[in-house]
Amino acid sequence: MFLRTFATAGRVLRQLSHDPRSIALMLLMPSMLVGLFAWLFSGQEGAFDRFGGPILALFPFILMFLVTSVTTLRERRSGTLERLMTTPLGKADFVLGYAIAFGLMAVLQALVTVGFAVTVCGLTVDGPLWQLGLVAVLDGLLGTGLGLFASAFARTEFQAVQFMPVLVFPQILLGGLLMPRDDMPAALTAISDWLPLSYVIDAVNAVATGDEGWELGRPLIVICAVLMVSLLLASLTLRRRTP
Amino acid sequence: MRAIVGVQAGVSGQVRVLGEAAGAASLRRRVAYATQAASVYDDLTVAQNLRYFARVLGVPSREVTRVTELVGLAQQAGQRVESLSGGQRGRVSLAAALLGSPELVVLDEPTVGLDPVLRAELWQLFRELAAQGATLLVSSHVMDEALRCDRLLLLREGQIVADTTPSELLEVTGTSDPEQAFLAIIAARGDSVESPRAGSAPMAHAPKHGGGDPR
């Protein structure tokens, strides 16, 4: 079973390696955006330290969501998924293979982005840096998991991209980046409690203020749980038999 | 064809393949399927594609070399599929279906868009595979190809209108042209043949049965 999972992950990475432009975009674009953001706030003392962390959480999430949902959709449409479904490949092999491949990309992306934010943009956090890196990795993985799940509901690449405003934008608005979650109208606070990105931003804020215990642990547990559930749902929505 | 390989949803009735329910887990190594579109990864090389499918099927990697030579793509093994011609892409897809020598190979219009030389070569390959004991189920709407098979199933609008052999088909209809024979069978059933394009008229046929009946 694991052989097939890793064979799939290797195949996805091999496909990616033939597309250097996508790799460059994936690894460098979040840094560019964080840099732009830092520049924007360069006149305001301390502003980047306050918003920089949550912003750091945003871009890997969005980017990995997009990349994953479009690539898996391409596989559905090219007929290769149908072929794989006639082979001994398990549905979990397929989903985990993608998750491992893009998870690896998420790790690289997190290293580059956190490194850039800290060394070039001068982001400072009270907590240890590796924790910020860990949150960024989980964040990218979360985007991958949700992207895998979302691609099940898209019939075309166009639809897959349209899922961004539906699934991602509300999470950005309500995640606590624009306004602390406790200051929102009660109903919206309640909704934001159900959105995974809120917990990523909670975790980043916890690292930024140097909280180590439950303040950081709780959101991390929630993120991991959502990640597991989205991977499970992604493999359950994969059908061997299709119309 | 999708029902036979077990990827078609909403099938009523029973489909049994090699003695088991279509799509059963135990059939996934014994039955192979190549869709009409070349279902391989454009952005990988021929060898990378086949190596991946070989690992998924759990067959040894020497199979990759064997099937690559079988479909005549040894020269192109290191090329990316997107750089190949349409016919070559189809043959990569065919090669993937031949990995591990499955007992039943289901091929959806494998010769579409190929030049006559390649078509003849592929049919020769199908013959060899059948001689080695595999059952091939090939769909085509080119009636000439029907004559190369051992058994013919003529389909029209989702119904099997004839289950016959090439010689029997020509004999019964009293024609020498397979296309005319098909039309004669439709006419004999009382269907309109004035607009043959309106209804779908595909045809499935299976060369030599070395193994069991696929149905």
SSE blueprint:
The complex is a heterodimer of chains A (243) and B (215).
Chain A: H1 2-17, H2 20-40, H3 47-78, H4 80-85, H5 91-119, H6 129-150, H7 157-174, H8 186-192, H9 196-208, H10 214-237
Chain B: H1 2-5, E1 16-17, E2 20-21, E3 31-34, H2 46-57, H3 62-70, H4 86-98, E4 104-108, H5 116-131, E5 135-140, H6 143-146, E6 151-156, E7 159-164, H7 166-173, H8 178-188, E8 203-206
Parallel strand pairs in B: 3-4, 4-5
Antiparallel strand pairs in B: 1-2, 5-8, 6-7, 6-8
Helix pairs in contact in B: 2-3, 3-4, 7-8
Describe this structure in words.
The complex is a heterodimer of chains A (243) and B (215). Chain A has one domain (2-237). Chain A is built from ten helices and no strands. Chain A has helices at 2-17, 20-40, 47-78, 80-85, 91-119, 129-150, 157-174, 186-192, 196-208, 214-237. In chain A, helix 5 packs antiparallel against helix 10. The mean pLDDT of chain A is 89. With 215 residues, chain B is an alpha/beta fold. Chain B is built from eight helices and eight strands, in the order H-E-E-E-H-H-H-E-H-E-H-E-E-H-H-E. In chain B, the strands form two sheets. In chain B, strands 3-4-5-8-6-7 form a six-stranded mixed sheet. Chain B is globular, with a radius of gyration of 18 Å.
Tag the structure with descriptive keywords.
heterodimer, A: 0% strand, B: 215 residues, alpha/beta, six-stranded mixed β-sheet, two-stranded antiparallel sheet, 8 helices, 36% helix, disordered C terminus
Write a brief structural summary.
The complex is a heterodimer of chains A (243) and B (215). Chain A has 243 residues and is mainly alpha-helical. In chain B, helix 7 crosses helix 8.
